[in-house]
Amino acid sequence: MVLSRFWLVIFISSITFIVISLFTGNNYSTDFILNGKKDDPILVSEKYLNQIPKFVADSIEKAPDMTMIVNRDTLNADTTYVYKNQTVKLYSGIQKADGLLPTCKNSLVDLIIPLIAYLAFFCGLMELLIISGASEKLAKRLSPLFAKVFPSIPKNHESISYMTLNFAANFLGLDSAATPFGLKAMQSLQELNPDKDKASDAQIMFMCLHAAGLTLIPTSIIGYRAAENAANPADVMLPCIITSFIGTIAAFLIVGIRQRINFKSVGLLAALMGVIGAIVGLLFYINTLDLIGKNSFTGNLSGLMLIAIIGFTLIFSFINERKFSEANTTIFDTFVDGARNGLNTGVKIFPYVMGMLVAISFFRNSGLFEIISNGIAFVFSNLGVSKKITDGLPVAILRPFSSGGSRGFMIDAMRNSGVDSFTGRLVCIFQCSAETTFYVIAVYFGSVNIKNTRYTLPTMLLVDFICVVAAIAVASWFF
Fold first, then answer.
1. CA-based radius of gyration for the chain
2. pLDDT per residue over 30-55, tens digit each?
């Protein structure tokens, strides 16, 4: 219900603002909102040739392509005059996101089709884990711990193994592998859900633990910093880990208090301390490496873990091939059946993802997001918050809505403020230590047709806010 209302608010407020902007002259056309593409120039006016300055008209007539560019603002796209069909069209500024129709198309072509491919492959592997008995053994090993965090899940339930693989994949930055494991976990949890339209406690806990985006190896962030010629691309690694870990603990505590989980459990505390110890130990090892060593280690660890998961699944399946024979199937046929299920899941979640992305596209292109973002920055600046922090807030604000949009702001901030500046580092921590909340909710709950998400959305947004505050504090501490 909360997500549905929020979706309607985004759409209706954006449409209202677009109509007002059109009739007040702030927007000349609505075509870019419907058909425009990200980074395209925006049409701001259209005039006859005799209505524009004489030197511009002369230059247009002399230009081979009947086009003239005037560099008026070096921070934005140049003003461009294009003569066509007896009128001169003026373009200035660039579009922040794809329009409605390109978003519909791109959500299928650029997002869902690749996601379906990932789902097909990894769901095929997961089916092998199920038939071979590997998932059952993993669930038995972890049942004592998960019984404390997810008290409503029966002992040795298969969802435990799927959640473990999902957390491990996210932890190591294996995005392509994490989503299929997470979707399979949600489907398994849905089987235990007595009210199929309402999110269960276990599903809410699982989703909220995603909100902080806990990652040990922020490979993509290091890559973007390296591409911008940072002196030490990996210098934000430790701050990213600390911030995301703070957010994860916050999510666990907030949801745990709501669900009355026993935090005094010795097993739970021991597991938590073990995870912290493992992270600290690995960080100490990474800090002993030079720059090339760090880049090589962080880049290869995730890849090797993915290869290890695939290799283990296939080898374990071969060793236990008799179980496939007992099920009247083969290893390859089992893989194909699992891949087919992944394909069906991808088709099912497409409407949810497309609906959310179109709303976000409207929100950004309407100009309403920019006004809200600037307003928040203005408030913070008047409260005495440093400009180097407020310059990075657009990344934090946009992160729950769009990973690609916040990534664009991150790169822009690194280029304008300096990749090794405080702002340049802060936006990287913002990008790494939070999740694309609305996308995740649409995908995961959409895959099991959950209509009432209960307190999931406000909790995830609260965790996002905690991550923002933690990121500012950690960045101030380190840099």
1. 25
2. 778 888 887 778 777 777 777 777 76
